[in-house]
Design a protein that fits this description.
The chain has 426 residues and is mainly alpha-helical. The protein has 4 domains: 1-12 and 104-163, no CATH class; 27-102, no CATH class; 166-240; 252-424, no CATH class. It has 16 helices and 11 strands. The strands form 5 sheets. Strands 2-4-3 form a 3-stranded antiparallel β-sheet. A hairpin with a 6-residue loop joins strand 3 and strand 4. Helix 7 runs parallel beside helix 9 (222-240), helix 10 (252-266) packs antiparallel against helix 11 and helix 13 (351-369) packs across helix 14 (377-390). The radius of gyration is 22 Å and the shape is globular. The structure holds iron/sulfur cluster. The site of iron/sulfur cluster (SF4) has 12 residues, from helix 1 and helix 5. Iron/sulfur cluster binds at residues 16-22, 103-104, 122-124.
Length: 426
């Protein structure tokens, strides 16, 4: 039976406004059934499809998969001259590949139900345009049913739809979903407490997380765990709400690891915004090296990055308008409530490691905002969120244990806090 959808983000709206970005930014994987069905729609008879296969294989030959082909400039083969989907126009939305229908929703399996997140790379999601998500429950229910079928067909060897019932918290304890949710509920409460700026709220969350790294939870379960987390959150408020926070430049370790994650987040190897660096292995290596060194101009890891130097990105930030902070608050509430930052939705990261990655997106977004300020503060943050969220949980380079170790080092040295304060300074 399909898991029900629960906990839809109440602050978030979305509807597709047909900007066409997702049709030119990604490869669209298809199942064998989708391939057969779309081939049967008769596209190959039309003059504009002569001599071009509709689908192309990808991946190693022993795990061969198929995706929709693209035309010159990495545009989906089914896009028409107005940037609209031909399959949608001729046969309706149900006829499209499931991956296109689901985007930008992310269905996050949380024990016995799904939570819903969004990919903020979609401009309608960042701009909060469209109907409230709470009004889209029926569509989401249908997507949940389609998702399980699609997942089974894409990964026939996997135990389709099965989700581990125990999850790693950090470096030793394994908790069940109800217990993990107690942590995220407490962090959602902190994120909602508007009496402090968002930066301070994130520092409070990290204060709680730091203590949890050290704690042992084998005897603190259920209601005791809830009380323990509330006590920690109260202590974080007392410690961090009023006292001035010194802004100290992150150490060289923090700066290098930060730029390593920036490189992963900015690197784009597919679609029309594919970086020039990715077209040639040597150029790509040079670009990654320049990222790590942090000197000179930003390397061309994707098209549309600001043409500025690393030194420009270290300058203090001008005061950002309230709308920019509201977008950031909405972004983090959606990610935190949906749990799209660890576990099955995020390469099976342990909870606290995934939380560190989520926290690190704040200095990354504020760093990138500096490059887009000529658009105005709110638009600059909007663009930075779109770019940084694009690879959040989707870059294959986040899969390695090296990146988890890097996040652990940032946590242990409290570099993430320094990075947040450093890049939020005005
Ligand atoms: S990026 Fe978003 S708004 Fe644009 S076409 Fe895709 S789903 Fe629609």
């Amino acid at each position: 039976m399909t898991r029900p959808i629960r906990h839809l983000p109440v602050l978030q709206n979305w509807d597709c406004h047909q900007c066409g970005n997702c049709c030119t930014d990604y490869w669209v994987p298809v199942t064998p059934e989708e391939r057969r069905r779309i081939e049967a729609q008769g596209w190959s008879q039309l003059p504009e499809f002569q001599g071009i296969p509709l689908f192309v294989p990808y991946g190693p030959f022993w795990r061969r998969k198929w995706r929709v082909n693209q035309r010159e400039g990495d545009r989906c083969i089914f896009l028409d001259e107005h940037g609209l989907c031909r399959i949608h126009a001729k046969f309706g939305p149900e006829a499209k590949p499931f991956a296109c229908r689901l985007y930008p929703y992310v269905l996050v399996p949380v024990g016995d139900h799904y939570r819903v997140s969004l990919r903020f790379a979609c401009p309608s999601a960042t701009a909060n345009k469209g109907r409230p998500l709470t009004a889209q429950r029926d569509e989401l229910k249908e997507y949940a049913q389609g998702f399980e079928r699609w997942h089974r067909e894409m990964n026939p060897q996997a135990h389709a739809g099965s989700v581990d019932q125990l999850l790693p918290l950090g470096q030793g304890d394994w908790l069940d979903w109800d217990e993990i949710v107690l942590f995220s509920d407490e962090f959602v409460r902190i994120l909602r407490s508007r009496e402090w700026p968002l930066v301070r709220r994130w520092l409070q969350i990290l204060y709680v997380a730091r203590t949890c790294w050290e704690a042992r939870f084998d005897k603190v379960r259920g209601s005791r765990l809830r009380e323990f987390l509330q006590l920690l959150a109260d202590a974080a408020r007392l410690e961090l709400s009023e006292r001035p926070m010194p802004v100290i430049r992150p150490s060289w370790v923090g700066r290098i690891l930060f730029r390593n994650f920036l490189a992963i987040s900015l690197r784009k190897d597919q679609g029309v915004r594919r970086g020039d660096a990715s077209r040639n292995r040597l150029r790509l290596m040079a670009a990654m090296w320049r990222m790590l060194r942090g000197r000179g101009k930003l390397p061309p890891l994707q098209k549309g990055l600001p043409e500025v130097t690393f030194a420009d990105m270290e300058k203090p930030l001008p005061e950002l308008p309230a709308a920019a902070w509201e977008l950031l608050e909405r972004y983090y509430l959606v990610k935190m409530q949906s749990l799209q930052f660890f576990g099955p939705a995020f390469m099976n990261y342990p909870f606290l490691i995934g939380l560190e990655m989520l926290a690190l997106t704040l200095p990354m977004i504020l760093w990138l905002t500096r490059g887009y300020l000529d658009r105005g503060g709110a638009a600059a943050v909007e663009k930075a969120v779109q770019v940084i969220d694009e690879n959040f949980g989707y870059s294959p380079f986040l899969e390695s244990s090296r990146q988890r170790l890097a996040l652990r080092i940032l946590a242990m040295r409290q570099e993430t806090e320094r990075l947040i304060l450093w890049y939020a300074r005005s």
